[in-house]
Amino acid sequence: MIEGALWRKWVFYNIPLILFVFVLLFPFYWMIITTFRPDGELYRPWNAVNYQPFWTNNPTLEHIKYLFEETSFARWMFNTMFIALVSTIISLFCGVLAGYALARLNFPWAGSLGTVIFVTYLVPQTLLFIPLAQIIRNFELGDTPWSLILTYPTFLIPFCTWLMMGYFKAIPKELEECARIDGASRWKAMVYIVIPVAVPGILSSGIIAFTLSWNEFIYALVFLSSPDQKTVPVGVTSELIRGDVFFWGPLMAGALLGSIPVAIVYSFFVEHYVSGLTGSVKG
Which of 15, 95, 177, 210 could serve as a FRET partner for 69 with CA atoms 20 to 30 Å apart? Predict the structure, then answer.
């Protein structure tokens, strides 16, 4: 009986989990190896003598140096960070207020309005960038970070609103009602009672919104043209792919360094803030 349970655990849990982790992490491993592999190994034929596709005996930093010395990668990182932070703050502010209104205020068609707001998030960006490009041109914001800061909330605010609406609905109304009985206005009850309890949801929404802003490609490709104004996803792919020539070393180095801020945000905030605050609320 024990052997049968152990066999089923390996077949239906352990082996699929191992395969899933391997498929998930192997691209990152390949990206790291390619970043530190010299060009002589990168372009060596697969049937060459002593060819090692999954390891390198001569690690180098030349690709990272090329990225910072021959391209505007540092500027791309700053642009991406600035745009992602500002657009996330704007979207969080609007999303928290809209989510609270839809979850707490009683007005006609509140549920239908929440559904409509979420449906707007599902509209493909390939349909929206044409009218948005006309708006950006009319306001003369093309090729500036503000063209992205003002367009990213078009898909971030609906997402944050929907997420925060569900989180606010999970908070007991009695907490807010007690504050109202003690003389607090609705605004004070929201600011001093509801929002502190909703901090884990706000941080979760902010992390996801930051990630969506950081990885966005279509709007950044359409609205930005100058090399110094580009973001990391657009700059790496447009400046390191020239015709049919792929600079694989710098490409993988840019992808690796570009993913570090998002990894830091997830590991730091989720582990130290979101999980801890959620546990304290449950406790």
Answer: 210
* Pairwise CA distance, residues 71 & 90, whole Å: 30
Q: Which two tokens stand for residue 70?
A: 């021959």
Max CA distance (Å), the chain: 81
* Superfamily for domain range 72-282: MetI-like (1.10.3720.10)
Tell me the H-state helices in 48-185: 62-70, 73-104, 110-121, 125-138, 145-149, 153-170, 173-181
Q: Half-sphere exposure of residue 255, counting CA atoms within 13 Å on the CB side?
A: 19
**Nearest alpha carbon to residue 104 among 190, 2, 1, 213:** 190
- CA 90 to chain CA centroid, nearest Å: 15
Q: What DSSP line would sit under 214-237, residue for residue?
A: HH--HHHHHH--SGGG--HHHHHH
pLDDT tens digits for range 166-209: 889 888 888 888 888 888 888 888 888 888 888 888 988 998 89
190, 152 Cβ separation under 8 angstroms: no
Three-class DSSP category at 51 = coil
pLDDT digits (tens, 9 = 90+) for 241-265: 887 778 888 999 999 998 888 888 7
Tokens coding 164: 């925060």
Quick one: which of 177, 179, 202 has its CA closest to 104? 177
**In this structure, what token pair is assigned to residue 232?**
């990391």
